[in-house]
Amino acid sequence: MGLKDSQISMYEHSEIKVRLLKLYLEQYLNVLYLSPFVDIVYVYDLFCGEGIYDNGGEGSPIIILNTVKKVHCLNQSSKENIGRIHSHFNDLNPDKIEKLKTIVEEKKLSCPEIGSITFSSKDYRELVPLIAKKTLKFTKQKGFIFIDPYGYKDIRVSDIQSLLLSKKTEVLLFLPTQFMFRFEKKGTPESLKDFIEELVPIAEWPQSTTGVDFIENLTDAFRRTLGNEYFVDSFIISRDKNQFFCLFFFTSHIYGFDRMLNSKWKLDEEEGRGWSLGSENSLFGQMEKRANTSKFEKKLIEFLSSERGNGEIYEFTLHNGHLPTHAKDILTILQDSNKLITRSLDGSEVRRSSFYLNYTHYRDNPNKIMLKLK
Prior knowledge:
Blueprint: H1 5-8, H2 12-33, E1 40-45, H3 60-75, E2 84-90, H4 94-106, E3 117-120, H5 124-135, E4 141-147, H6 157-164, E5 169-175, H7 177-185, H8 190-197, H9 211-226, E6 231-238, E7 244-251, H10 254-267, E8 274-276, H11 294-303, E9 308-309, H12 310-319, H13 324-336, E10 340-344, H14 359-364, E11 369-373
Parallel strand pairs: 1-2, 1-4, 2-3, 4-5, 6-8
Antiparallel strand pairs: 5-7, 6-7, 9-11, 10-11
């Protein structure tokens, strides 16, 4: 069977997919590279392809290796014992792996002082338990797993659960949700039924009116299944009118979630929700964009009907898909309108517009100040 054109030529929606991957990895690796608590970072690309599309577009392996080199160059003078980054690329098709090896060599992307590059041609279903078993032994290691399958029939929710179990990994999963939505409405194949059944009994699955509805239902189901220990978010990619695909991000670490949200909002400055074809080239796309926080503002105001610590507000903000800067802007307006009560537990004066909404204060001083609406 011949390959689909989207598997040999890079379309604009695929470029956005790897751009989000790049933006997140830059932030993720920069933090971990210099962390005294992390010695090694493992980056896995489980459906890597051959690296370069026929039209010259760079696929995920090239994006990953270029990002690794960039992070290394930025940080190599910062400390003596720099953490290593090991990359592993897998594709069931051994021809693709051989082509990728050639490209890596030609582009001189291998750099032993950074870390190793390994390759395999294993079946995804065989590889996932091996990686999951390895991550369970992590102590001062971290793992990032990128899963961009050629379909969805091999993907299981239990895969994500097993890969997250160590609490030392992040997973970025791309799903062709448009096709899943289309089959949800008629002729649901067994592979989709099996996928949904891991999340909710098929009889209880809510019917979706649009492709976006399907994505939101799927995101909610992921969250319920994984529970409060994990953070789940989605980034919608619209290729054509009413054609929606989606990247799903999973982590147990709130700061990893913080960094992914930051990456999303860089790509969608108004909604932090997704990308659509032509949105960057339109006349309005050239204008300065402001974040739409109206819905979040209502939720935050309701949340502040009870007194909350700065750590609670930080976590609440992220769970609602927004950045700490958005919450700070809303709180500043409330404070300027004399509608907000702020107090410190130690009785010290609270500086105006200082709300301590960041990961460091969440971790070390989550109740530095308390806030409540008057």
